[in-house]
Amino acid sequence: xxxxxxxxxxxxxxxxxxxxxxxxxxxxxxxxxxxxxxxxxxxxxxxxxxxxxx
Length: 54
Fold this sequence. Notes:
Elements (H helix, E strand, L loop, with lengths): L1 H10 L8 E3 L5 E3 L3 H20 L1
Antiparallel strand pairs: 1-2
């Protein structure tokens, strides 16, 4: 998407969508659990980039 590309160019990071679903007693649960690993990888990439830049 165009806005995601602008965000990445400006801030250097990716955009993620976290979807949740309602479960018992109005609690919510992350529906797309695979996004958690993607976010962790992106955080690591950004930290490594920051460390290389020092």
